[in-house]
């Protein structure tokens, strides 16, 4: 698996959400009870962090000063490390659109590709399309075509990986057709439906929806096959039978 450093630049459109930097230099919600200094995270950085899924609290390497939209944060998620730098590139940062984000992803190419794919899906726009092209080129040192190429190359890798995952499930589905009992046929219908959902989600660049549909399809595949069905049902029954401890968090600080 190819490891490396992948640098992407993105046009910021909005400065929201407004958040806080606590006394330890960690990113916190605006409602953080212990207070902190103001920071404008912006739509791009928010999309990056959302694409990571569960992750430790991001840490500021360069916290914001007078300009609350100029900063650098670092965050680690599994094998990936991401650095995001926000800075103005036109008009002294008078508006949110005067800012860009430099996104540095360190890790496996496939993981970086999935992040890039998810960022685009979350933003709902092409991040290389800038408000001030000349200033963007001057600040980054690259042409707009070069920025587009860097993004689309990674996105293609991410899309190809998801497409392969869909086809793996589809091949297992085809092999089971006509070889299961009546109960299995019902579950094979579920597999087919979720494969359709996954392909549509891939077309819409919605990677999380693809993953959810494939997860449902894989479970239905197991249930469709009498040889594997009993194992899964036994596991589910055991989990349901376990006593789930109750933790009262109402008095927690």
Spatial gap, N to C terminus: 44 Å
Would you list the SSEs in sequence order as H and E?
A: EEEEHEEEEHHHHHH
CATH topology of the largest domain: TATA-Binding Protein
Number of helices: 7
Describe the structure.
The structure is a single chain. This protein has 253 residues and is an alpha+beta fold. The chain contains seven helices and eight strands; from the N terminus they run E-E-E-E-H-E-E-E-E-H-H-H-H-H-H. The chain starts with a strand and ends in a 12-residue tail after the last helix. The C terminus is likely disordered.
Q: What are its keywords?
A:
253 residues; 48% helix; 2 domains; TATA-Binding Protein; five-stranded antiparallel β-sheet; three-stranded antiparallel β-sheet; 7 helices; 8 strands; 19% strand; alpha+beta
Give the topology.
Blueprint: E1 3-11, E2 18-21, E3 27-28, E4 37-40, H1 43-51, E5 59-62, E6 71-77, E7 80-88, E8 99-108, H2 109-123, H3 133-140, H4 144-176, H5 182-203, H6 207-224, H7 226-241
Antiparallel strand pairs: 1-8, 2-3, 2-4, 5-6, 6-7, 7-8
Helix pairs in contact: 1-2, 2-4, 4-5, 4-6, 5-6
What is the gist of this entry?
This protein has 253 residues and is of the alpha+beta class.
């Amino acid at each position: 698996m190819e490891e490396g450093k992948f640098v992407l630049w993105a046009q910021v459109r909005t400065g929201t959400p407004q958040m806080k930097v606590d006394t330890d230099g960690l990113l916190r919600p605006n409602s953080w009870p212990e207070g902190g200094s103001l920071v404008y995270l912006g739509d791009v950085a928010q999309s990056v962090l959302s694409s990571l899924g569960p992750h430790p609290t991001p840490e500021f390497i360069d916290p914001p000063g007078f300009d609350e939209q100029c900063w650098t944060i670092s965050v680690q998620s599994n094998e990936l490390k991401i650095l995001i730098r926000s800075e103005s590139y036109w008009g002294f940062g008078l508006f949110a659109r005067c800012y860009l984000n430099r996104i540095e992803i360190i890790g496996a190419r496939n993981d970086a590709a999935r992040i890039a794919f998810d960022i685009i899906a979350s933003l709902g726009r092409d991040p290389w399309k800038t408000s001030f092209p000349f200033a963007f080129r001057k600040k980054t040192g690259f042409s707009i075509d070069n920025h587009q190429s860097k993004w689309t190359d990674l996105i293609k890798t991410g899309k190809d990986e998801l497409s392969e995952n869909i086809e793996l499930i589809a091949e297992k589905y085809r092999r089971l057709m006509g070889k299961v009992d009546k109960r299995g046929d019902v579950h094979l219908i579920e597999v087919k439906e979720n494969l359709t959902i996954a392909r549509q989600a891939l077309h819409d660049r919605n990677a999380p929806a693809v993953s959810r549909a494939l997860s449902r399809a894989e479970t239905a595949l197991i249930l469709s096959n009498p040889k594997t069905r009993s194992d899964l049902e036994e596991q589910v029954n055991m989990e349901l039978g376990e006593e789930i401890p109750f933790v009262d968090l109402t008095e927690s600080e």
